[in-house]
Amino acid sequence: MMIEKIKWVFAVLIVFLVILGTNLIDRRNFKQLKNSVENIYDDRMVASNLIYRMTSLLRNRELLIVRSDTTHYDERVRVFEDKFKDIISEYRSTNLTDFEQIELSRVIEAKNQLSRIEEQHVQLGQHNLDVIVGRYDRIYRHMDELSTIQMEESAKQKRISQKAMDSVEFFTNIEIYMLVFLGVLAQVIILYRSK
Known about the structure:
The protein has a single domain, classed as Four Helix Bundle (Hemerythrin (Met), subunit A) (Up-down Bundle). About 90% of the residues lie in helices and about 0% in strands. The chain is built from four helices and no strands. InterPro entries: HlyB_4HB_MCP.
C-alpha cells in the first residue's frame, strides 16, 4: 500500500515538474518576443525614419543646385550639414548590422564627395549638373540599400517573434494536457480510495 502511494506521489511530482519546466520555457520565449518587438521599433522603425529624413534633406539640397538657387547658399548648406551629421549620429546609435555599417559608410563617403563637387560648382561657376545629379543618384541607391536592409532585418525579427509564439503555443498545449491528466489522475485516486 505504501509503495502504491509513493508511485502516485512520484507521478504527480513528475507532472508538476513538467508544468514548471514548460512555464520557465514560456517565460524565456516571452522575453525573446519582447526583445524582438523592441528591436523592430528601436533599430528598424527608427532607422527607417532616419533614412527618410536623410533622403528628404538630400532632395532639398539637390533642388538648390539644380535650380541654381544660390540665395543664402552657404547658410543653407551649413544647416544641411549639421542636420545630416545629427541624423548620421542617431543612425549609428541604432543596432547596425555589418552590411548596414558598410552601406552607411558608403552614404557618408558619397555625400562627402558630392559636397566637394557642389562647392566647386557654386564657387567656380562650373555647370556640370550631370555629374552632380549622378552623385545624388549614387547616394539614393545606397539609401535604397539601407531601406532594404531595414525590411530584411524587420522580417528576421518577425520570424524570431513567430518562432517564440509558436513555442509558447506548443508548451501551453502541453500544460493543458498535463493539467487534464492531473485532474483525471486526482479523480482516479479519490475514487480508488473511496472503494
